[in-house]
Amino acid sequence: MSTLGEAITTARRALGATQEELAAAAGVTQAALSRYERDMRDPEGNVLPRLAAALGVTESFLKEAGSVRGAMAVDAHMRKRATAKATTWRQLEARLNMYRMHVRYLMEEVSLRAEQRIPTFDPVDTDPADAARMVRMQWRMPIGPIRSVTPWVEAAGCVVVAEDFGTSRVDGLSQWVDDHPVILINQAAPADRLRLTIGHELGHLCLHSSEVTLTMEEDATRFAAEFLMPAEVIRPQLRNLTLGRLHDLKREWGTSMQALIERARELNVITPEKRTNLYKSLSNKGWRTKEPLSDELASEVPQLAQTIGVAMANKGLTREEIASIAGFSGPEKNKLFATQERRLRAI
What we know:
Shape: elongated
Strand order of the largest sheet: 1-3-4-2
Structural class: mainly alpha
Radius of gyration: 22 Å
Strand content: 5-15%
Distance between the termini: 55 Å
Largest sheet: 4 strands, mixed
């Protein structure tokens, strides 16, 4: 069970604000805010409304976020590099927590009927590649390449949010508590990397919804590889790899050349020496850090959250009402279910 203090702390971290900054915005002392966050004292009088306003949420959202099982401060699955700063990924984790709670808060008022569902598997009993094949089969996906991954994930009721993280060291995060999975992706990343990130986070959602294993990251990577590049189809295409062949396969499969090399090695289609030589060729052309063709691939553009907002607006709800239902203090704070302001037209 989360607490009000955890909710305040998470909301503050999501904004990237210090205790001093939030205290000043809410008109309280830093010492008092510290006690609120540590649950040593409850905000009295009109302090909670002021805190909520400073955090961009409603008072009722803060209260509920601090009373729901697993609501706040839940560890997120994260695809990041070893050099990612702890302060960066903690802020992103807090932001993901907030988005998931806003989705949960809204879903108490609005029912979402998904075409599919995200299945879950026991990671001990189920091989990641088998899990990926079962997901593709359940979703009735095409046998070969997938043009865009996001629509498939969103059709299963998972809200995908794209933001510029301000760093290339973190690619994506995911979290699933109760029935509301959310994936947060770094929109500054190239399309091929985003596709792999979404596949990786989907692997976490399918395999690690309740079980934590020592091989979580490896499992999610293997899931993503099979999900995006099914062995049965791609194996024959990975023989006799050259840079030119990697170009063609990247266009066809929408994955990076490096991911294709790793897939070929995983499937024992190339030797370790061949893998090393291919990477040397990429390095000689400067493609290890920035591959060609990425801008030619279809972009991963999330649409579910905006579609929900538009559907609510079409039912006659105002931008203010939509924001309030989702737990935001006003429409200017509602970046998740944002809708265009309706304007009167002269006829």
